[in-house]
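Quick one before lunch.
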Amino acid sequence: MKRDDKIHPFISGNKWRKLKYILQSARHAGKTHLVTFGGAWSNHLLATACAGATFGFKTTGFVRGEAVSNPNLSLCKIYGMELQFVDRTSYRNKPLLYEQYVTSNPGAYFIDEGGYSTDGAQGCTEIIDELSLTYDHIFCACGTGTTIAGLHRGCARKELHTRLHGVVVLAGGDFIPAAVRGLYPDTEVDGLTIHTDYHFGGYAKTTPALNSFIRQFTAQTGILIEPVYTGKLLYSVFDLAKRDYFNVGARILVVHTGGLTGILGLHEQLV
Ligand SMILES: *Cc1c(COP(=O)(O)O)cnc(C)c1O
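Model of the pyridoxal-5'-phosphate complex:
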């Protein structure tokens, strides 16, 4: 397992990978104010709030849905993020929300939901650069597809013959190859295996089977995983192994993309 969860408690895992070049581009463009988007439990909002505070940017988060309070949003505020709640219809038109905002804030810099961008994917290529062994299979969880796009690019650059697997954590995950091509149009998406059957009812949904797997895995290994992303990821790998999906002796890497604060929203269901 590649433990990207250890990068930082709140600029965690792939969120740091994605923000690294986004923040560099913002700085190069002379921008001082990061503006981004997410749900009320978004790891990306929290990572952006924390990274903004760390590297000297103001931050604004547009939050989907009616005004709520929860530990994730409280952490965002403590890190200085300004929160603006927007109804679901307006939220769909992010460029418009941003246009309205940037008019009065010329220092603003647009960051798409989940950090979806080629800058974001570029940071994720470095996960591959850091590996000292080669693998037959590499697995990651997919939300926007930015991380797997970067892993794919990283493998191609090193001419690795690794099979990349994305475990989609939301229902209707067939859009992932198109999302990858949206970042790198020349990607041969045939090289990707996208698993769309491990969403457990949809984004941030869980089931007793998933919960009990997470408890068992964490208690046995000391490695904390959570129901929104990494729990579904690890469940899929164990389930595929049980079904003899892998050859004996196959070398498998799982990328722990962090996001452990997701537990705070589901802890009562989890135990
Ligand atoms: C945001 C997130 C993902 C999704 O990554 P994408 O690059 O959007 O596909 C995966 N794992 C964790 C822990 C996350 O927080």
